[in-house]
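Q: I'm teaching a short session on how sequence maps to structure, and I want students to see two examples side by side rather than one. Could you give me a first protein with its sequence written out and its structure tokens following it? Keep the formatting plain so it prints cleanly on a handout.
A: Of course. Example one:
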Amino acid sequence: MKKSEFWCGSESLDRAHRNLTQCQTMDENETITACTQWDYDRETYPETAVSQYNLMCGEEYWIQLTQSVLLFGYLAGSLISGLISDKFGRKPMIIISAWFYLLFSTLSAFSPSIACFCLFRFCTAFFAISLYNVSFTYCVEIV
């Protein structure tokens, strides 16, 4: 995966003072401060998750966390969906899982923050694996 190119950006700084490092800047008085806004290289990709949620300078862990949250959602859905479908029936669980899968997939596409994105990804994974497991079990029971 190609790393996103970024640099510290500020309207008040000229190009000579902008790049002390990618996470720090030096102002006119030569004071080193942490960056609060960034400019991105948008030549290859106009927008990425890194640029949308500002996932740099100590925030890179969110990238791996979103994948871990997705897999944990699969785990939770696998464990819980069977119990729920045994109690309330396969067909209602299939319908509910399909609707919530659609809802949370759409919400994750338009999430305003990375924390919301992680929550929606967990729910998406939970209902996706629930839909798969319960549908598979339903078909096997019919045959």
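Q: Perfect. Now a second example for contrast.
A: Example two:
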Amino acid sequence: MSFKTQLYINGEFRDAARGGTFNTINPANGEVITSVAAGTAEDIDAAVEAAVACLNSPNWGYASTGAQRAQVLRNLGELFKARKEELARLDSLDQGKPIREALADLGDAISCCEHFAQLAEQRDAHQHEVIENGTGGDFTTTIVLEPIGVVAAITPWNYPLLMAVWKVVPALAAGCTVVLKPSELAPLSCLLFGELCTQAGAPPGAVNVVTGLGPDAGGPLTHHPKIDKISFTGSVPTARRVMNAAAEGPRAVSLELGGKSPLLIFEDADVEATVDWVITGFLWGSGQVCSATSRVLVHSSLRESFLKLLTEKVANVKIGDSLSEEMANVEGGVMGPVVNDVQYKKIWNYIDEARSEGLVFAYGGSRDLVSSINGGKGYFVPPTIVVDPPVTARVWNEEIFGPVLCVREFNTEEEAIQVANDTVYGLAGAVFSADTDRCERVARRLRTGIVWKNNCQPAFIQAPWGGCKQSGFGRDLGRWGLEEFTNVKQVTSSASGYKWGLW
């Protein structure tokens, strides 16, 4: 497999200005995949200048139509289809996710291109829309929808390509230009993505990709005075630094951050179906998902039957390197490694602390369960289920970002809602019950940006994605995602020579 390893700026690959590189690691065995260019402030400057020039060119930005941009996005979708296997294998190798998950990401990326192509076309019909202003014709007010400008898109490592698509594609649909800074932990697919945007017809400078470490590349990008909008997905501590940088402008910012999402199971829920969704909620992506429903609240009458079936099913999940021959033909549930040694140690620290506090494990929590995988190489953590942790425990309150589930029981609806909302996060939540009225009541009371009723984790390109509280603000996806990259301009006119006559 070949790799793009240089920065992608103004429609071409180039080495970092200072010549630096960093290694990207295969999480399945801890070995170096390749070395990638390490961008710094000089490279950020070059990328931003290319983006500014493109934004003001006759081929893009303010001068382009939605129909023109839609064609680029449809071309990009076709390129994704043609190279779907290659891109999926890149993310599986670089990030560690099972190939079926990486292929699902590509399916979403393809859908994203078509959806935002449609929205871009629809935007043309709304340009220069006349707004009733109550003046009886003395003034005419129209609305112009323009790109917000040059966008800094900073994306995480858990969905390397898909999260970049979620930001870059709607930004392009709006006519913006982008400097993409992917996570240094899984940058390979994003470098290829930049080139594919140009091949799809986006002019040079429309999409630039600068890889590098956070302080060296991400810092200069968020502080750059010619950035008009920052779109960030990642951790709360980094988000605070991003907001401080945005305040210097001040410039627009949207944040999609972490979570500790609750999943409520009432006494009339279908246990078998619910267990499948619970497993998806904490094992998809090896639990490295911002919306992971890692806090389960189950009605006391279902506790024993739920835990019995859950542990039986989790025990059958196959863990390993999904690109290996051993895993290639596995049917049923599979799980890969976590992304790197730092994340591996962090997750085990939470597990070890829970054990030292005397907490009960219904399953997992032992290195022996994964010690033989891949000859002892790689960053594998078994599914781990902690039962009845106190609400003050770190394992219950903090985002672990790994395959760790906490389960507590409840007796009343009010109790369940109170415990579910007792968190600093507000990204997502789920409720399982055969009672549709109860589902609706609970959904309305959960303080989150997303609620699932009798399902868990689906994300639709047409629907908004984002949270509240320390899970951030602003929205990705759907028409709301397009609005994040739009400047709404009011244009009011009157006849030549008309005056108010006030002076």
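Q: What should students look for in example two?
A: Point them to this: Residues 99-126 form the longest helix (28 residues). Also worth mentioning: DSSP finds 16 helices and 24 strands in the chain.
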